[in-house]
Amino acid sequence: MSASSPAAKRYAMTVDTRQCVGCKACVLACKAENAVPDGFCRQWIVEEVRGEFPRLSAEIRSERCNHCTDAPCVKNCPTGASHVNEGGVVLVTHGKCSGCKACIAACPYDARFVHPEGYVDKCTFCLHRVQKGLPPACVGVCPTGTLTFGDTNDPESAVSTLLRERRSKVNHPESGAGPNVHFLV
Amino acid sequence: MHELIEATTTRTNPGIDPTLHIWGWEIVVYLFLGGLVAGIFVLAAALELRSGEKPKGDALRLMPFAALGLLSLGMVALWLDLAHKLWAWRFYLFFHATSPMSWGAWILVLIYPVGLLLGLGSMSEAQRAWLRGKAPKALASLLEKGFAWADGGRRGILRTSVGMGVALGIYTGLLLGTMPSRIAWNSAVLGPLFLASGISTGAALLLLLPLEEGERKTLVRWDAAAIVAELVLIALMLLGWATSGDAGQWAAAQFLGGPYTAVFFSCVVVLGLLVPLAMEAIEARRNVPFAVMLPVLILSGGLALRWILLTAGQHSAFRFLP
Fold first, then answer.
1. Interface test mutation site (partner A, options B8, B9, B190, B321, max chain A beta carbons within 10 A)
2. What ipTM does this complex have?
């Protein structure tokens, strides 16, 4: 089934910035699940503080690849290693990647890195788990219920409901890439 | 007003943080040599198309072969940059129309036979006789076919050489210019700018050779035109950014008061473009040739242009916008 078919899945994630405490359990779960090498991470925590003391506000975000609808990394990949897979998930076929790094330069979110084995690596939305009916490792481990994963083409999914009922934003919408990680505010 | 005062991240990926630094000297060398070779192809073919005669100097006749050697050196630099070097052949199992790098990979392959034919056709009878004497006997008939093809469709080969040179020069700029994520690259002007710079550096290299007076005058005149085009394109690039949205204005500010202002205007605009242009004006009016200084300044300016833009682009991202 093509990604553009009305019945096709469109996976997305919501990150509730009102719930996240920045415990980094998602970061560690991802590293353990995907054997991410030391010194590298597929996801990370950003803390933003705004205002002037003592009138401050803080926002904590769990960030990762945005699996963009119009992914610049896929468009710029010269070997076809970066591609759109089931549910719009952007993946890298390790055996096709020459490590030219064009996708890294093209990514508006700096979400990719060169794996020590020579290929470019990034978040996969744990598609290997999702295909077995399991949530991504970060979602499964989150102790505050910050992360929700699901199919936005299914109006009854938890992620669709949250996006309908809560105000949300995406990082750098000006990139025009159509990110699929939404931050509930 | 909720002014952002601090943003911290746990991400410290090598090559990515604190700012992107995935492409280093290898890509600078490749972009420079790619532009240089593009310029040599355009100029060598255009000189012959204009005069209807083969180049007069022996060195100029062999420049297409030297250009292929320089391009090979650039491709070695490109290969050294690959994180998975044994997978370089993967570029040639696929063509991706939206990827300038994919276009470039195929242009690099197609330009070799064109360059060989351009060079074979430029060779004098004495050079051909020397080559026939040195070539292995097994290649003798192939060499004769090469000479026949090179001489037979000469105008077609010359026009194709101009086209391939333009494609190579433009692609090296579009490779960077078509990445909206890198704010200080995101300009379509980079394609023609790198082409104009490539033509200028190509002319500079040719000006280092012993040339017939008419050929030198033509090259100096064409180089001056390329330099003027570069100055106009740089002005358009900065103007385009400065009159666009937040991202463009941030990019323009990097070169107009920001961290790259001094190095860009001193090494590229003044020493690489304005001073050589003034030297060429003096040479044209007073007939005083600047045999070495002029080409060296132009070549250094071309290298600096690519080095500075490559660095500035990698240090630019949406997350740095205020």
1. B9
2. 0.91
